[in-house]
Amino acid sequence: MTIGLQHYLVLSAVLFCIGLFGALTRRNAVVILMCIELMLNAVNISLVAFSSYIVPQLLTGQVFAIFVMVVAAAEIAVGLAIVLAIFRGLANIDTNNINLLKW
Amino acid sequence: MGLAATFWIMAVVIVVAALGVVFQRNVFRAALTLILCFIAVAGLYITLSADFLAAVQILVYVGAISVLIILAVMMTREVQRGNSPNKMEIPAAIVAAVLLGILVYTVANTNWKIATAAPLSPTTVPLATRLFSENGYILPVEIGAVLLLAAIIGAIVITREK
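Output (structure tokens, whole complex):
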């Protein structure tokens, strides 16, 4: 059985849904950021698969994957900085206890 | 044949490592399985003949992002308290399963226009040409540089001691 575009897209969907489940259910803020990284990696897999199966000479998907990586790096830097600032103020990063803005 | 075997090995490693990130009790071990998942994704890029992206994946994700995550895990001292779930587990599982079903149905029922041409084999030079040449992506590259600078300054400002 040869590997086609559908295999990569289904793998990407599975990885995205695992990341989504984790991001919705975990209580540790650092683990939520890890799950967001999983979701971004899933999107990158599908972009690169589209790039090499549908427009193999244009590399458009790979360019997009590079920009996704740039945004992911910026996001994780700012996100972890916010987590550390919250930890300094509240002494824990349990999302059940971070409810100052909740009404 | 070798390609198929590599794909299946990488796919199994990716899914198991992702499940480990979500369900591992110890946050530090979850970070280590996340690194394993990143490395397997880099291997998947090689099977897609995206060699430059595989190197970037190793450098950026395995080299930089995972170091940041492990640093945050160590500084927040939540390792003992663990990676516990909140009360929304069953609704979240239903949402994720429904989304997975929709995605798999769409992927299986779409008529993809698979190109017959072989993918470019060393991608570094064509990728640089696409990014930096005229009518390429030079403006988004500049915006990305500004975004990274803003993120660095923002992270410093947020974490600075008063």
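Chain B touches chain A through 84 residues (CB under 8 Å).
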